[in-house]
Amino acid sequence: MRFRAFVPFLAAIAISTSSMSVAIAADDPVVAIVNGHKILKSELMAARENLPEEYRPVPMEQIFPVLLSSLVDSRLVAVDAKSRKLDKEAGYKERLEQISVQVLERYAVRQAIEAAVTDDKLRTEYQNRVSGGGDKEVSARHILVKTNDEAMAIIKELDGGADFAELAKTKSTGPSGPRGGDLGYFAKGQMVPQFETAAFALEKGAYTKEPVQTQFGFHVIKVEDSRETKPPTFEESVDEIRNDMAQAAAAQYIEGLRGAAKIERFNIDGSKQN
Predict the structure, then answer these.
(1) Domain boundaries in the chain?
(2) At what angle do helices 90-116 and 234-260 cross, to 10 degrees?
(3) b/e per residue 31-47 (b: at least 16 CB within 10 A)
(4) Coil/strand/helix, residue 31
(5) Overall pTM > 0.90
């Protein structure tokens, strides 16, 4: 399987951390015994949680044999290393200290995130995001030309009663020209700023009375319709909200530590920075 290469490393991490703290419970059965050393279901689940994100959705019944084999192999290696007293060597202890610092760092950040991202806070943030209703979308057409004078001439024709779609078909240099300049519905953030500002300022059926300049040229814009989109449900939004809140909580936690710390930085050769 493609994820086989990831498992031994992750399983080793799971063994080194879980074997120190996992208590055998009724809902934590033994899934293997290696030379008298038990491997628990909780260790298997911890190894799965540490898989790269793209492999986590793989059903447990599919990944179980590979994950368990990797845990068994890792336990064999660990037991052999201890029997040869490799855990007493200075190189191992130095590496263990480095890993310990990394694990402690991640644990501290995780604690900060868990305190900040609760179910109640997720729902409060969701309500804040949807309190204003859905986003506004407009359906618009445009005519794109190279110069301001050309755009002004088109506006003059429109003022005289010319059909916008027909003018777009014959005069627009944009890819939507053959469709009568039709851009369909779009929300804020989907068009360049100048175009967006002009389009969302128009009433239904109105067109710009002055050309709108962007990096593409000069536009004449007409809004055909506008509508409010339905806000996404909590279930549809919760993963994005959780991720946003987690990132904010981690950044706030680290920023607080920086603010309270005395930090000196040096150049790569150890000399003082100017």
Answers:
(1) 2-88, 136-228
(2) 120
(3) bbeeeeeebbbbbbbbb
(4) strand
(5) no
Buried b (16+ CB within 10 A) or exposed e, 166-182: ebbbebbebebbeebbe
Q: Give the whole-angstrom CA distance, residue 125 versus residue 119.
A: 10
Using DSSP's 3-state secondary structure scheme, residue 166 falls into helix
Q: What is the DSSP string of 91-158?
A: HHHHHHHHHHHHHHHHHHHHHHHHHH--HHHHHHHHHHHHTT-SPEEEEEEEEEESSHHHHHHHHHHH
User: Counting every residue, how long is the chain?
Assistant: 274
Q: Which residues contact 77 (CB under 8 A, 6 or more apart)?
A: 12
Question: Hey, which bits of 23-114 come out as E strands?
Answer: 30-34, 37-40
pLDDT tens for each residue of 83-137: 999 999 999 999 999 999 999 999 999 999 999 999 999 999 999 988 876 788 9
Mean pLDDT, the chain cut into blocks of 10 residues (274 residues total): 44 40 63 90 88 83 90 92 94 93 94 96 93 85 97 97 97 96 94 96 97 97 93 93 95 95 91 85
Q: Which of 221, 34, 23, 226 is nearest to 11 (CA)?
A: 34
- For the CA atoms of 76, 81, 87, 89, the dihedral, rounded to the nearest 10 degrees, stands at -160
**Geometric angle at alpha carbon 174, from 146 and 141, rounded to 5°:** 105
* CATH of the structural domain 136-228, one choice from 3.90.1030.10, 3.30.450.20, 3.10.50.40, 3.90.950.10: 3.10.50.40
Helix/strand number for the chain, H first, E second: 9, 6
